[in-house]
Amino acid sequence: MGADAQGPLTSPITSKNLSVIERSKQLAAWTAVDNHVKSEHRVIGIGSGSTVPYVVERIVMQGPEVNEGRLFIPTGFQSKELIVKSGLSLGDVDQYPTIDVTIDGADEVDKQLNCIKGGGACHLREKVLAEAAKTFVLVADYRKNVEYLGTNFKPGVPIEVVPFAYAKVLQNLHHALDCPQATLRMAVAKAGPVVSDNGNFIIDAPFSMERMKDPYTIMVQIKMLTGVVEVGVFCHMAVAAYFGNQDGSVTVKYSDGQVKTINPPQ
């Protein structure tokens, strides 16, 4: 179902008073929905990030007759709240391990559509929903669009670890994997480390730009460390990424290397 079939790209909900960059993020999210969330899709994964409310908004605009009988599987608290508040039906991946399409945000996306996720400590569930999806699509703003991972997102690769193994994994990262700046992520509003929805700790491991040119190798090396639950590097998974630009346009990058520009509506 394309944009023409759903009506002009104007929203009764949020288009008024949005900044240019927010309108471009909205256009990116709406275009991703129009291109990838088809009326026949029944199970849809909803990710997290500042562009995702626009994803849900556009899905709602497809109409109650389309959304009736659909199930929406959230990656975390934010997406669950968006689904519930929008009047859409919640599902769970343990009931529906095959998802038609998942749309999610990203902390950074490289030229091959590899991405870093986990800035919000949800990357375990996010990767499960990405792998479960027949189609995985990313939506973000222009700051996340980079040639190599680690260009703008400086905290490093998010790593979820079981609590009793975090010191061992840190030592492995510092010495075996030559990442001396890897640190346990600490909470901001309380004393102690960040705890994921799964009860685990998060380590942030900043690797050099040169090593991040091969994110798949880094992902595998970290994943092989005993105590690691999941790594916030997603490789060879997304089919397309939509980026809202500063001038209001949208850049679309595809897994086959194609790049397109969508200009904002007049």
From TrEMBL:
Pfam families to which the protein is assigned, alphabetical: Rib_5-P_isom_A
Matches recorded under SUPFAM superfamilies: D-ribose-5-phosphate isomerase (RpiA), lid domain, NagB/RpiA/CoA transferase-like
Alphabetical UniProt keywords: Isomerase
Pathway: Carbohydrate degradation; pentose phosphate pathway; D-ribose 5-phosphate from D-ribulose 5-phosphate (non-oxidative stage): step 1/1
Catalyzed reactions per annotation: aldehydo-D-ribose 5-phosphate = D-ribulose 5-phosphate
Cited Gene3D superfamilies: 3.30.70.260, 3.40.50.1360
Assigned EC number: 5.3.1.6
GO biological process, one term: D-ribose metabolic process
Cellular component terms per the entry's GO annotation: cytoplasm
InterPro entries reported for this sequence: NagB/RpiA_transferase-like (IPR037171), Ribose5P_isomerase_type_A (IPR004788)
GO molecular function: ribose-5-phosphate isomerase activity
UniProt superkingdom: Eukaryota
Class in the EC hierarchy, top level: isomerase
UniProt record similarity statement: Belongs to the ribose 5-phosphate isomerase family.
PANTHER family cross-referenced by the UniProt entry: RIBOSE-5-PHOSPHATE ISOMERASE
Name by which UniProt lists this protein: Ribose-5-phosphate isomerase
Native source organism of the sequence: Fistulina hepatica ATCC 64428
Lineage, uppermost ranks: Eukaryota, Fungi, Dikarya, Basidiomycota, Agaricomycotina
